[in-house]
């Protein structure tokens, strides 16, 4: 059991982290609360000449530990329970629509609603599985799971079909299995795709490409966009905890992605050219 960490000013970081987590109730809000807390404490320590940098480093370390702490495991357990309730309601609604389809005057409209409900159920089931895998990893299990790569990528593309508005294209994936937690893979892909959606042009000219290829012992997966690119002076900071270029960003998404990728033995790489777009590539061991 680790001893609660304190800053030089006597702040119990573990207690503060748990308090902020409980009060926020939302991952993005949690990130914003942490940014405000970090700023206020750093200013205080700077004024007292007690080393703000050391405090920043200590808080970052505590945040990283919190990703595997009991409070995070409990939150994921509760979230999975709620998702299971949501899935039950979706199934009930789908059953009712199937009954209506037999007598509907416009069955094609009912079919369209059923398709939307099926996609909603897919997202809910995927989220439930992600939370299950997250708890398993925290308990020391779940590592080394054999994952069907084509199925994973097709599921990811289907989940993001509507939010990407048809701008996400999946290249024909290689038929191979990989060795990594399925939930962690989905989290990384969802983060990278959502980041790309935020920066690509509106309309059909915007494009995100999801692709994969096999190397000797690894499979490489890539999310590429044709957005504006990341300025060279910011590329070195893009994986820093709390660094964000978004007005409402928390600055924890890409650091989390890198940590998850490194957890299964891979490496998350960035390639970006101004005016041409950005590519994030990571490796996964072949099963």
Structure description:
By secondary structure, the chain is α+β, with helices and mostly antiparallel strands. Helix content is about 55%, strand content about 15%. It contains 9 helices and 7 strands, in the order αααααβαββαββααββ. The protein has helices at about 15-25, 25-45, 50-65, 70-100, 105-140, 150-160, 180-200, 230-235, 255-265; strands at about 145-150, 170, 175-180, 210-215, 220-225, 270-275, 275-285. It is globular, with a radius of gyration of 21 Å.
Keywords:
3 domains, disordered N terminus, 7 strands, Heat Shock Protein 90, two-stranded antiparallel ribbon, single chain, alpha+beta, 287 residues
Mean pLDDT: 76
CATH superfamily of the largest domain: Histidine kinase-like ATPase, C-terminal domain
**If you consult CATH, what is the topology of the largest domain?**
Heat Shock Protein 90
Tell me, what is the CATH class of the largest domain?
A: Alpha Beta
Low-confidence stretches: 1-9, 64-71, 138-142
Number of helices: 9
Which structural class should the secondary elements be placed in?
Answer: alpha+beta
Coarse shape = globular
Strand line-up in the sheet with most strands: 2-4-5-7-6
Q: What radius of gyration results from the CA coordinates?
A: 21 Å
The count of β-strands is 7
Number of domains: 3
Give the H and E element order: HHHHHEHEEHEEHHEE
